[in-house]
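Journal club prep — side note

Before the paper discussion, L.F. wants everyone to see what a predicted structure for a comparable chain looks like in token form. Sequence:
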Amino acid sequence: MKKLSDSLLILALVGLGVAGGYWLGHGGIGMSTADDGAKKERPALYWFDPMYPTQHFNAPGKSPFMDMQLVPKYVDGAQDASSVSVSPQLAQNLGMRTAVVVRERLPGGLDAVGSLGYNQRDIANLQARAAGFVERVYDRAPGDVLPAGAPLVDLLIPEWSAAQLEFVAVLAGGDSRLVQASRQRLQLLGMPEAVIAQVVKTRKVRPVLTLSTPIAGELQSLEVRAGMSVSAGMSLARINGLGSVWLDTSIPEAQATWVQVGAPVSVALSAYPGQTLAGKVVAVLPSVDPQNRTLTLRSQLPNPDGKLRPGMFASVRLADPDPSPRLLVPGEAVIRTGKRTLVMLAQDGGRYQPREIRIGRESAGRIEVLDGLSEGQKVVTSGQFLLDSEASLQGIVPTDEPMVPTASMAPSTPLTSMEGMK
């Protein structure tokens, strides 16, 4: 009897399950049919693949990208199909903040770091004018800072002896044409005018030439020693002037619009705290560093007392070359995707629309907007990435103007890309 009662209980439960399933199944079908009918009453704006939301189609079908059906985007007359709706409570929970697009002067200037270097336009090379021998090297070494006219090397030039003896004999004869011809010969042999003048004055042969520094500056190289033989044109010494120095400053290539040749710069050195030096941009180097993507500005600073030493680091500030007002948004409101630049535009009724913009210069946390926004509009500065992700999932494409559904958007042929809707 116990086994019989258990069997009857199991059959009763199975019957109830079948009846409940029948009721739920009919109820579910009825609800699904109602939902499908409600969706069919709303016309679809377009169909899209959630994995490729920027590609729109004007008819249902299977996605050409993924093994799945296209998802419809329905037209809602009460809402704009090109924006995302967020309730005030959800916006408050997400901590969403907005800022107004303003037209003001871009604050501050451009701050960068540079290093001092030698002025490569202030260089003197000493060469031997004729073949000879080094008789004496003065007590000099590379790194010495020398005044102009400081002696470096005494050269004995045997070829000059015979030419000067002939010149002295011609001078004694008094024939002006012979004197002029002999003088030109001395010049062709590389004899300086100062040496020729001394021969004329003293009527004595001067085969030894003393090479001196033509400019004041640092002796960077001295290539001779006593007893060496030298040939004509051989480099003997190199001097770099220190009356002015170059300042090379690296700035990001995106800030190239800040640069103008002749623009003033303010320079501060850690070696001289509290002092500000003034200079100007003399050149913008034509190449960009391929590793750190920076552009090099070259400025020239006067150095009359020699306190600016090549190799020093400096803090550089460039003023804004164009102080006129412009449209500005906070830097945190801008979304850079790599292909385009977006902001989330706040609209009435809790709607947010992705808007593609074109940006310019950036300074002090604010970015110049060249195109895509108007003064007085509001952009989202906190939570904009969540809104952008939601817009992408819904297939909303950023445009300059909102999309307005029209009757011409009705389905026609399947899997046909909609022109003008990208």
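L.F.'s comment for the group: Residues 1-39, 402-422 have pLDDT under 50 and may be disordered. Keep this in mind when we get to the figures.
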